[in-house]
Please model this.
Amino acid sequence: MKIKIALIQQKNSSNVDENMKKLKSNIQKASSMGCQLAALQELHNTLYFCQNEIEDNFDLAENIPGASTQFYSELAKECKIVLVTSLFEKRTPGLYHNTAIVFENDGSIAGKYRKMHIPDDPGFYEKYYFTPGDIGFNPIETSLGSIGVLICWDQWYPEAARIMSLKGAEILIYPTAIGWNPHDAEDEKKRQRDSWIISQRAHSIANGLPLLSINRTGFEANPKNGSGIDFWGSSFICGPQGEIIAKASISEEEILVADIDKSQTESVRRTWPFLRDRRIDKYGDILKVYID
Model:
């Protein structure tokens, strides 16, 4: 089964309404090109607010269902497209998640995923804002098949991709917000971006699945100092052997469109039967934090 995919890579501003209007226009364009699925970058309604620990940023969070889910539900129905979104969820006062919502092409909510791995690094202070997900690694069933949605920091963990695969995911999708410290040397920037791409391609190869990675682009200043994050774009679509089918630029806003063929997973897994040869009887140590 072939599916036409669109990844929406864009720059964001502090104006949420403008960001959402631009997303709407791009999703409509993707639909007009015949795309059946569109995926958006992590926390796409806003700037990446986790550069600092600022209490007022919690005001950006919203209930699910809520205003944004209504907006994207209507858009998915209008465009007849499966839509992968990423929202700052207010579950109850004092409890917040980084949550992906997937809409079916009739506007209904197909399912959700709450980010499981939460970073806490300079410029990425997500532990201040997000409680780790509590609904596990579960694929979401859609009219286009079973999709495994994971979010940004999750993309460094092979266990997450493997569990999604073992539970029947047919595509892995990673909404992302990642970029450089502008003060890093150019060779360090290249190493970081290359590692990010290689890590995800490895998940594709190890599980025999097509993979979509959607990142934002553009510079977003840190409101508390003279630094910020230069988001490196580079959204990409790869096939089940990790082969790059399409890749966006580092700095430009783009609608990245490509076809993926889910039927390739069968032939790839017959040639590289990684799931067959797993030694699950010997993997108990993986449950330990560290082996002394």
Notes: The chain is about 25% helix and 30% strand.
